[in-house]
Predict the 3D structure of the following.
Amino acid sequence: MELEVRRVRQAFLSGRSRPLRFRLQQLEALRRMVQEREKDILTAIAADLCKSEFNVYSQEVITVLGEIDFMLENLPEWVTAKPVKKNVLTMLDEAYIQPQPLGVVLIIGAWNYPFVLTIQPLIGAIAAGNAVIIKPSELSENTAKILAKLLPQYLDQDLYIVINGGVEETTELLKQRFDHIFYTGNTAVGKIVMEAAAKHLTPVTLELGGKSPCYIDKDCDLDIVCRRITWGKYMNCGQTCIAPDYILCEASLQNQIVWKIKETVKEFYGENIKESPDYERIINLRHFKRILSLLEGQKIAFGGETDEATRYIAPTVLTDVDPKTKVMQEEIFGPILPIVPVKNVDEAINFINEREKPLALYVFSHNHKLIKRMIDETSSGGVTGNDVIMHFTLNSFPFGGVGSSGMGAYHGKHSFDTFSHQRPCLLKSLKREGANKLRYPPNSQSKVDWGKFFLLKRFNKEKLGLLLLTFLGIVAAVLVKVKYY
Amino acid sequence: MDPLGDTLRRLREAFHAGRTRPAEFRAAQLQGLGRFLQENKQLLHDALAQDLHKSAFESEVSEVAISQGEVTLALRNLRAWMKDERVPKNLATQLDSAFIRKEPFGLVLIIAPWNYPLNLTLVPLVGALAAGNCVVLKPSEISKNVEKILAEVLPQYVDQSCFAVVLGGPQETGQLLEHRFDYIFFTGSPRVGKIVMTAAAKHLTPVTLELGGKNPCYVDDNCDPQTVANRVAWFRYFNAGQTCVAPDYVLCSPEMQERLLPALQSTITRFYGDDPQSSPNLGRIINQKQFQRLRALLGCGRVAIGGQSDESDRYIAPTVLVDVQEMEPVMQEEIFGPILPIVNVQSLDEAIEFINRREKPLALYAFSNSSQVGVVKRVLTQTSSGGFCGNDGFMHMTLASLPFGGVGASGMGRYHGKFSFDTFSHHRACLLRSPGMEKLNALRYPPQSPRRLRMLLVAMEAQGCSCTLL
């Protein structure tokens, strides 16, 4: 493991990954890989999650292609130095922020969207000029294998490598030193990753999870609301970090909500859900059993059918859920939707704030003031109002969590920024040393006053004004010099 | 009985009650900080003189004025910084409202160091308060006199339901770190930085760590030695060398060294007189422990200039060491004192290689005549560091439009000016969709089909997306 990491570091130190042209070439190669080997990729992911190839394409591949295109278009601009506003002391100098690569980045992928959640960060890391070690999730075996096979065929084999393995291998990997670690997964492992990173003072981005609440107001079009929620909840069989985890609403709405979701499920997946090519399965037996145990003691409004042999769990809705029960204690990550009745929006807000900050928050209402209040009085990674999931799809948004749902963000330029060091640079000249006499000892009260003047005086005047002040500065320096020598 | 736990709970309750959210409240806190600086100027100067023998000039320029500048900047820009930031939308979200909301994290812990005890406490504090957080401040116990003022006087100027000062040494800080915060801002050594980040990991608390390292200072053959000597000496011996961004060591050719040494001697004499110990413009080492550590470093290489020390005064003369080996202690740890080793290199390539063999520093300096700007630019592009200044010392810190922070072992995260506000804020993506447009949404619903997929690709503006499934 140590040798592998060292090899990648050597490759980075060669400087190969830095030039813009190289980064663009790698991104174009990645794009070619996705297009030429589409069939292989779709097959692998479909096998891991029992997902239809259409769904793989629309949920994972489109996002990846869109992200690559966005990078290719904007990277030339992003890599350039950005000049910054100067003050009196620096007005004749060059001052700018220069993005630079960090070095060797470790990306630990997740199993629920095994392709996009590994490749989208990879795109950002490559764009920022880094070398990358990718550790796909071992739970999505087929995708892990296909990534190990395909990436070396298209990308630089020394700069970007795939290391596969389970907990043991990942633990070994985390002992090595990286320049940034990007982890997508659960809170418990997130802590382990950050603790390992602390030993090397490695910055981290942690995309974790939580229970994303979904508040449904009285004043809304319940038909549309339930369709949108049904789509977001049962997509990927509920195994989505930003799926609406549970619903908060007034008790009087429960029955209608149940009815409408039931109807929508029928519309989406047909009478025999098991046969629908658009309905996925639980990733493995352990999670299957875990999700099953959440149903114990609950009032199942509809759904609840399961089949262990195929790891099938039907789209399920629970009503009158007690917040103290197990289903409300952990992130569900499955096709079970509890409804927790609350008296009003005040109670809903308190309920949400008593809990850990979630990765996403959803609120449905025609009342714009209510939505505003929800946002103002709670916190979460992101928010979508009157829909679910969608804030993920706009890459001008930073996508990330807060509190126990994570730290840091990515997507689009935010990926580039995450994987770069934005280095402040000030270039002065060796001339005009006379003006510096003002700062050198021996000091005096007048020097103190001038020092304050130059530090605190702000400038948004024209060049003439600036030149006048330089002149004043030199005059001041001369005056002080004359006074003291 | 857990007074610390009670304090934190009280602060959290105030935060949840929404006290710190309104712009008026935050502005009042910032104005309080401004008044604190203005009304206690002499008190602060005296404390800084007692702790570090800082001259009025140094106290004003590097502590009070910098802090004041940040307060003023934050007050002037607060409302603009607080505003929701609109973002570009795509086809599917054209009719929606898309913005980034800047939210306070909640309870922020600021752990401050002793070398610029006012500046490095207040500047992060400005950012944390401007961003709407409640703050627990842990000033350094080593700069005792300033600590007293921060503990007893400062709280009178801010709303104490949202602000607390916790005092103590390493043990108390350790206990403090066991509690949960929503953000931790630490300035100090890499060793303690690791401890802070490990503690933060237990609660998944995000951190900014402003650490340190050995800041290299490359001096090209092609420059005026006197100008370079002035600039390097000023930044090295400012605050008796106890500055995280001070030039730590010089890299130059033996020829340049020959020209630099007399220039440095001339500068030092001009700055501090023939007897620097009696100059009011030279600081002192903060305590015995640091003094002993630095005195030991005087034995490395050969003393070319200075080398005197006085234990009773914690005085170390402005010193230049030559014939220094890479493995000697003075080249192994951050000096943080008025000692400047010169290491010889034969070429720019060797200098760059030397720099890159080591940990990424907080700052990096390169001096070369302006017509040779290629040299400066080369050092810049072929190395990495928190920040960089060509042909001067840490002037880049005085520009609030430049982010200030480290990379690698010198730290993570950044602040100053708007960067402070952004550091102490959670940037929350908010998408408010209209209940209409359901027809467009219908494309995403199962059951899927090639036709649906084709239309979805169009709607998502997925250009050049040809799918084999179609």
Q: What stands out?
A: The radius of gyration of chain A is 28 Å.
